[in-house]
Every structure is written in C-alpha cells, then in structure tokens.
C-alpha cells in the first residue's frame, strides 16, 4: 500500500528513456509532486507548494528568472507514454506566484502513478531530496527497483542510455561517476551498493551492482516538506501558466 510521502512509480517510468536530460532539481521536483499523491486520490488534484519546500538553494529561490526558466524547461520535456506513440509531459499546468507553485499532473499518467497495484517501485521521498546529482537519483531508482533481488546488471550501453551519459565518457569517466553516486547514496539514502565491471572477451561490456540496505537515514521533517499543500484557490491569478493545449498539440505530432 502506498504510504503518505512515498514515491510510487510504475516500473515502465523507472526504466524510461527520453530524448531530454533532466537536471537534479527537475527530478527532485517531479519526485516531490509524485509523493504528494495521497493514497485516497481517485484523480489528480490541483495543488500548491511553497518554493522553499523544494530544496532549492537560497540563491535559486531568489532568482525569478531561474525559477521561470526552470518551469518552462520542465514543462517542455515531453516523453512517450510507455507502450504507446503518444506524447505527454509530467504536468498539465504549472504556475508560480508570490513564492507558491500551483500545479496539476498530466492525467494521462494516472495508470502509472495513481492506482498502481503491481510492477512498481516505491520509496520515501526523503531518499532523493538530499542527493547531489541527477545520476544519483536515477541510479537510486534503478537499484531500488531490484532491491529485493539484491543485484542488477546493466550493459554499459544500456546504462549510458538510461542515465543519458555523454558518448564522450570513457569507462574511467563512468567509474568516477558511479563512485560519486555510491558515496551519495551511502550518505543520504536507505540503499548502498558495490559494483564491478564485467568483461566480454577483451573489453568491458557490463556493470554488475550488488544492492544492500543502508543504515537508517533520518527522514526529512515532513511538516516542513508537506505543510504547505493546499487546494488551489481558483481566484488567484498566475504570473505565468502553461495550458494543456500545448500538450495536446504535441501529442498530435
């Protein structure tokens, strides 16, 4: 059963490959909003959260141009609904006004986020909010998916695709990336791992991860993280709002 403040995603979203690269704040924002889907929801709700609850730096919070561009970029990152040729995005609308973010998640994602009963990955949102990179968040989710099995193996090319690792990265660069992620997960999540490169013939072909439960990590103060959730006041006027029509137009392409 989904608990309050948990992120629950259908595994097809965990394994999703997109043409867009998400930065760490975008992934944190997506995970935070998914965790706000209450267990008793029948449909997605229009909701609001304070910008300070997103874990952004004070410099970012105080930069209106950054915040505006952040939401414009995130809203533009469409992807194909798993198993279809239909485009959608994470959100059908985003607004920012007076330090508050008003948002609605795209209803086309209801089967993958709202009432998922099998083939899903679930974790407390506090596990990703302190992570330092998008690679850490993605690797955490990919390993969490097979936590019960205790191991997961990726071909190097498959891992490149899932993490959107630059083609310019050599194996030594990927090793450094994984080492940083290993430290990040050990310090901030309920998982830790070891890994090894595996050869096929004379060349390294894949990477095997062994997954372990980490020591108990202190959870983020949920009063701070969730205290500002509320129904959207329809009388409020947004500074900027992106209409659902753009998604519909993209879906017809």
Helix content: 25-40%
Give the SSE order as H and E letters: EHHEHHEEEEHEHHEHHEEHEH
**Tell me, what is the CATH class of the largest domain?**
Mainly Alpha
- Walk across the major sheet and give the strand order: 5-6-2-11
Strand content: 15-25%
- Calculate Rg over CA atoms: 19 Å
Structural class by secondary-structure content: alpha+beta
Number of separate domains: 2
Mean pLDDT metric: 84
Low-confidence segments: 219-252
* CATH fourth-tier homologous superfamily of the largest domain: Winged helix-like DNA-binding domain superfamily/Winged helix DNA-binding domain
The biggest beta sheet, please? 4 strands, antiparallel
Overall strand count: 11
Query: What spatial form do the alpha-carbon principal axes imply?
Result: globular
Architecture of the largest domain, CATH level 2? Orthogonal Bundle
Kindly report how far apart the N and C termini lie: 37 Å
Q: Helix tally?
A: 11
Per CATH, what is the topology of the largest domain?
Answer: Arc Repressor Mutant, subunit A
Summarize the structure.
By secondary structure, the chain is α+β, with helices and mostly antiparallel strands. Helix content is 36%, strand content 23%.
Protein architecture, described:
This protein is an alpha+beta fold and 253 residues long. The chain folds into 2 domains: 1-130 and 220-253, Winged helix-like DNA-binding domain superfamily/Winged helix DNA-binding domain (Arc Repressor Mutant, subunit A), CATH 1.10.10; 131-218, Orthogonal Bundle (Arc Repressor Mutant, subunit A), CATH 1.10.10.10. The chain has 11 helices and 11 strands. It has helices at 11-14, 24-35, 58-61, 64-76, 110-113, 126-129, 134-145, 156-163, 171-188, 222-226, 244-251; strands at residues 6-10, 47-50, 79-80, 87-88, 91-97, 100-105, 120-124, 151-155, 191-200, 203-213, 230-231. The chain has a 4-stranded antiparallel beta sheet, with helices on one face. A 3-stranded antiparallel beta sheet has the order 8-10-9. It has a two-stranded antiparallel sheet with strand order 1-7. β3 (79-80) and β4 (87-88) form a beta hairpin. α7 (134-145) crosses α9. The radius of gyration is 19 Å and the shape is globular.
């Amino acid at each position: 059963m989904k608990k309050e403040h948990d992120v629950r995603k259908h595994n097809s979203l965990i394994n999703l490959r997109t043409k867009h690269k998400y930065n760490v704040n975008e992934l944190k924002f997506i995970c935070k909003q998914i965790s706000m889907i209450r267990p008793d929801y029948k449909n997605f709700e229009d909701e609001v959260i304070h910008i300070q609850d997103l874990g952004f730096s004070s410099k970012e919070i105080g930069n209106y141009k950054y915040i505006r561009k952040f939401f414009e970029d995130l809203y533009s990152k469409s992807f194909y609904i798993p198993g279809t040729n239909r485009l959608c995005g994470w959100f059908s609308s985003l607004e920012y006004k007076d330090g508050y973010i008003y948002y609605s998640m795209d209803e086309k994602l209801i089967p993958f986020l709202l009432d998922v009963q099998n083939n899903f990955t679930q974790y407390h949102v506090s596990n990703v909010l302190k992570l330092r990179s998008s690679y850490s968040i993605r690797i955490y989710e990919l390993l969490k998916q097979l936590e019960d099995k205790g191991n997961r193996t990726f071909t190097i090319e498959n891992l490149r695709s899932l993490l959107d690792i630059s083609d310019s990265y050599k194996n030594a660069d990927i090793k450094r990336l994984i080492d940083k992620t290993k430290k990040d997960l050990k310090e901030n999540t309920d998982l830790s791992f070891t890994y090894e490169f595996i050869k096929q013939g004379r060349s390294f072909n894949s990477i095997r991860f062994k997954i372990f439960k980490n020591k108990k990590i202190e959870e983020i103060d949920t009063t701070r993280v969730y205290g500002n959730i509320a129904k959207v006041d329809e009388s409020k006027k947004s500074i900027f709002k992106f209409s659902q029509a753009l998604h519909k137009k993209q879906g017809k392409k």
